[in-house]
Amino acid sequence: MPEIRPFKGIRYNTEKIKNFADVITQPYDQITDEMEREYKKKSPYSFVNLILTHYADGHDRNKEYENAKECAEKWFRDGIFIQDKEDSIYPYYQEFNLEGKNYIRKGFVCRLRLEELGKGNILPHEKTLSKPKEDRLNLTRITKKDFEPVFLLYTDPKNVVMDMIERKCKDKPIVDVKDDRGVQHKLWKISDRDIIAQVGSALKDALLVIADGHHRYETAFNYLNELGEVGTEHPANFKMVTLVNIQDPGLVILPTHRLVMNLKDFKGDDFIKKAEEYFAVKKVDRQNLKSTLEKEKMYAFGFYTKKDCYILKLKDLKIMERFLPDRSKEYQSLDVAILHTILIENILGIKPERIEDYIRYQRGIEETIKRVDSGEFQFAFLMNPTRPEQVRDVATKKERMPQKSTDFYPKLISGLVFYDIEG
Hints:
6-stranded antiparallel sheet, 14 helices
């Protein structure tokens, strides 16, 4: 069963860092080269120095891991970082606006005892890649710090856990900062042992599904196994996580659209004819493409070229039983599974192992359309978002979605609090 624990968080010292916006960053896997340069311009104490290493040639990766370690140790000695004296959990709110609507996503940061994914109550929902895990493992080995949390979902229809926590969030937060994407981040600290125990008890039988951070979780588990016999209370037995109720009204998943390139002799009319075997096909005006797709909600896709655009709606979900007879109905009903199985793999003939030669991923319909109009890509498949309950249901069936099935927005910001696993 999930074991939730408080921890003595390490944070930036407000007496030394006057503007937190200068030091916090997006998660390591969201940071472009340009963003890295901007972060480092803002402050020599940017969190980017601790979390980012490079895959590109010409970089000495080991040197960068060592630099992260030296920065963390020096900043702690110099009082840039301070460590809380009491074991605590950290309520964490993110306030943001999306398409004119305001949201608040509410969760809390704690540490969670590690277990092998899928063997107990902690479930993955996406596949992972080896390179990012190798990178994060090397960083963990050298720094012996847990810099960035994993984002997990739990189910709490009556909102019992956050109701308990919110009663302790009446005071001014210890961090209140707006990031470079306009998201407001607020962090509190709760050291009350009774509240912490009640939260742990309320979640003792919960299923926890990883929303974001699969590579980070698997890295922590692999690092613990690498250490060998260290005892059950060694700090490396735990991973820093942020827990959010799957029924939270601020939980938003954005769609990730597919851009297609490098198909020889591709003809849109031929593709549409083949698609009509499985899909009801309707030609639409470009101006109505987004609204029409959103109205369909499930089992529908936009197909966009510079010449035409269409809505493709699956005629019958039973079609997926023919293509994926060994998969659960929960998996078969995923839009991303329908898209990849029927349209990309079957009709276009793109094999999964070669998908990176043909497919790129893009957030935002307008941005996707622009990249087709520019001639950079031949066409695009536009999608509706995966729903949170689908993430839970597929994970509960012990199945993993294809990569880029979900895009939880916003990301958890890095640099609010972290965890020492050295012991």
